[in-house]
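Quick check before the chapter quiz. The format below is the same one you will see on the exam, so make sure you can read both the input and the output lines.
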Amino acid sequence: MKIITTSDANITQKNKNLLSPTNDAISKYIRNVNIMSKSTASEYLLRLNYFKSFLGKKFSFSSIDTIIKKIKDGDEDPYEVLTEYALYLMNCGISPYTLKQRVITIKNFLEYQDIDISPRKFKFKVRLPRTIRRNKEALSKEDVVDILNACSDIRLKTYVMFLAAGGFRAVEGLSIRIKDLDLESKPAKAFVRGEFTKTKTDRVVFLTDEVAQQLKFWLDYKYRTRRVSYKEESEGMTITEQRSPERKGTDLIFGIYQREPNPEWLYDDFGNSFAKTLDRIGKGTREDGNERRRQITFHSFRRFVKTTISDLGYSDYSEYFIGHSGSTYWRKKDSEKAEIFRKIEPYLSFLNVHQLERQGADIQSKVEELEDLNHSLRNHDKMKDDAIAHLSDQLVALTSRLQEVERRQQV
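Here is the expected output.
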């Protein structure tokens, strides 16, 4: 999570409308980036306005067009401007990674404005801090179970289980609609739209029986008949009646207010509830060097799924399952993918006691069967050893008799 200063917060408030920047140079650049990705364009607009704020404080420029003109006229050195901007950002309390990304964005923006910036000169003239890479361990299954048991809200519990068993990115899980679910197939499936994936590629994710059952519980609860009270203006009285929400295929499964469904709007709501849950069970430890971010996030469940499947010996399948591009040569049939999923399904189940007990009973029966087979083989080996020893004794006795016969004949 980025550390946002007071001035940054003001800039964020001013730029809620993506395609309405007042600066012409910024407007053209953002429209160009928006063709590729709206979310990227939104982030770039925010970064450009940080740069605009810096210009106003450092050079007293009210417009980015001014600095562009001065650089083109030779009055300002682009490398010096980028260096000054990097020094300015170092005092804003942001991480080295965020600082680097903001400077790189401005570099790309200047190049878009036909300002030549040599990659070699940029490397030596604009020094940026090294990015600190933290070691992030995957959650254990016990951690996931503890978090699920601590979720007091059925909506949050279903979402967390959905992530922990499906390996979805946070917004991918929030983007699933009712019509994207196939809970009756074996195994159940969820369709992820490419518009909300990082790779911009549609994919189908298999769901465990436990998750499929939990989704049914949640949807039944969401669309349950409830008592609604409202005031009738014409009669001036309060009316109470029983109502059932209309269930549409386009409804987001985790959305409550469906007027303008947007998965990204749901993220903050879930994030706050999840943070409170972690704090309540003592797992809300903050990251070193970034007190605004917890060590356990929604992305931690994605790491859990990847690690779990890889440890079972299905590394290529794990890349496919969580939505990485993976190997171009890994092209299994859907039936084969489903068969592999059935093998890993027990390791992605958490609260289904009956299934886990059944799995344990199956394992125990197999162990007992192997022990019986081992005992039988040992008895067989012992009988074989006894027979060999008996034959060996007979052979020795027969050899002795033949030697005795030969000795007599010689006499």
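If your answer matched, good. The mean pLDDT is 83.
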